[in-house]
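Supplementary Note 3. Input sequence used for the single-chain structure prediction.
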Amino acid sequence: MTLEADLPKPASTVVLVRDAAGPTPGLEVLMVRRSAGMAFGASAWVFPGGKVAASDADPAWDDLSDGSYDHYERSLRIAAAREVFEESGLLLATRGRRELDAGDSAGFDAMRGPVEADPSLLIKLAREAGLRLTLDRLIPFAHWITPSFEPRRFDTRFFLVHAPADQVVRHDGREAVDHEWVAPQALLERRRQGEAKLMFPTRLNLEVLARSRSAADAVAAARAQKVVTVEPRVEERADGKVLIIPAEAGYGLTEERVKNVMG
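The predicted structure, written as discrete structure tokens, is reproduced below.
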């Protein structure tokens, strides 16, 4: 019998992209480094994200966010926007018809800790500040379910979004102890050199991002693709355990030795 406690917990992850400033053009993605004390993915470079909270499914969000979604889909997108706010300070929202700028988002910094402690406070913040979350900006990018043999399991939707142009990232210093806008290929190379820790889904999704030359390319590619659910399975072989993922997921890789999955 499968108990509710055994089911993977819904979660959302956000792949924020932008075009690099300066003389060297190219795609950059926002990565945050998790605290060494975290129970999951300690010290790893990850995309902002986390578990869906009960308040993310509150019907109040129907009037405080854009798009026509059922409550489950909306909850995934609300969780995505909330986690981005908590971990990076960026707000995927408008005030009236105006995009938020650096001053706007910085003005809400004092609420990031309280919202992390009580996610329902984001509803109060949005209502009182006249904000509307721009959920339509979030493009489905990937869907991973933690394998059944893991003690902590998540059913994670990845969303890609072109980052707000006029806001500035400020990592929270608790869950996210550092952040960096980085070219996907550069971070992958650092991982190969042993200088950056990446979880398996993060690595493969960075490899997908590395195929795009600009934020517009990444957005177009995400809109054009079909998202295939990936729930890796383990296969025992004479020379060790191998993690298997479906070829139709489009990662160009269908298996990886378990010993190489984290790192």
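The helical segments are 71-88, 102-107, 112-117, 121-129, 184-192, 200-209, 215-224. The chain has seven helices and 14 strands.
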